[in-house]
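Incident log, structure service

09:12 report received: a user says their structure output differs between two submissions of the same chain.
09:20 pulled the input from the user's history:
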Amino acid sequence: MIYEMHERKNAEGIFAGWNETIIWACLQGVMGHVYADHIENPSSAMAILGDFCFFAGKPSEELVAFKPAWCRQNFIIAVGQNDAWAQMIEKYYGTRAKKVVRYAMKKEQDIFDKNKLKRIVSQLPSEYTINIMDEASYLDCKKEPWCRDLVSQFADWQTYQSFGVGVVIRKGGVIVSGASSYSAYLGGIEIEIDTREEYRRRGLAFICGAMLILACLDRGLYPSWDAQNLWSVALAKKLGYHLDYEYDAYEIYGYGGAV
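09:34 re-ran on a clean worker, output below:
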């Protein structure tokens, strides 16, 4: 039997030492959900938020197969705490699970050069404008599939305003690039950067990233960065981050349900 944990602190020990902000957000109750095999003394647990699902504790096929009733998506990125979890994910999902490598950037305080970041932002060509995410931009992002993930994990503007922060670049009044909070935890955010396809490779993501980091620093928030690919790693390094480690994840197509 799988239970949703409302006293999320009971699962803190299982996830201890896992330096992942999405897990922190779930355990803190800011966003996401935590499920486990026991409400008070769990031996296996799962933290799920948006497109990400993290498994910890004793490997459990029941938990790997579990899909919350509220979850309507058929795609999820699953990450196991160790090789035993990875093997269980592969065994259960088979060809529906695509193994990929992701890159965790170090979470280091006081490493960002504010003057450098300001110079990067100043390089924005005059035909563009860059602004902090406001309610109008939040609503515009929700309308466009390519930039929806900049705000999609926040139920409404009020929630985003309370926990998130973001920036958008517009051209002719239309959003063409943005950097924002994919998720938020107490003390920081997980960065999401997206650019409209026809405006990519123009340095807009670089500029958005620089301004978002500055906005986070002004608010006392840490801008955490987890890279999907080596391009993202290179961009993060240009902004001041350092690579921490690589890790395996599984992109699951056909999430939940019987094999």
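09:41 both user submissions now match this output. Likely a transient worker issue. Closing.
09:42 reviewer note: The domain at 3-104+248-253 is CATH 3.40.630.110 (Aminopeptidase). The radius of gyration is 19 Å.
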